[in-house]
Specification:
globular; 2 domains; mainly alpha; Rna Polymerase Sigma Factor, Chain: A; about 75% helix
Length: about 190
Amino acid sequence: MTDKEIFELLSDQRTRERGFSALVKELKEKVYWQIRRMVLSHEDADDLLQDVFVKVYQNIENFNRDSNLSTWVYRIAFNHTLNFLKVQKRKSILKFSNLEDSMLENLKADNLFDSSEIEYKFQKALLVLPKKQRAVFNLRYYDELPFSDIARIMDVSESSLKSSYHFATKKIQESLLNDDNIKFEFIN
């Protein structure tokens, strides 16, 4: 189902529930992974995913159609996740702990994370990046979104995103090379 068809269903009170179900079915997995790659925890990602779709449902009238419906949902997820991470950062400061270390420990303990040591090291390298740069990297590398879509999601220029992605790949490569002489190829 296309964004346009889903939006038409959402716009009509008689078909709103069906439209929302179609939207969730269409985007749930992609939005989950967008969030999960930023928070690393399945439980947190699952909770945030539910919050995002509640916000979408409550605010569908505010969608002004200047982008795709999916881009609008990704943007809500992006902003909601950043806010969550800010709160978590404040909590970790109050506990005198490091949020990134805590996230890595949670990832290791997550029984849904059964990847190799290299994946763990890759996630560790990603956590070195600032949150927004990590988000740019994740959206481009994992989701293979074009910079134009990422620009709409993050509300920044394409040129700054390209630069941010470039610096992110360099930082990740440096981190991995310093760790294990590992080399990755990144998409441009």
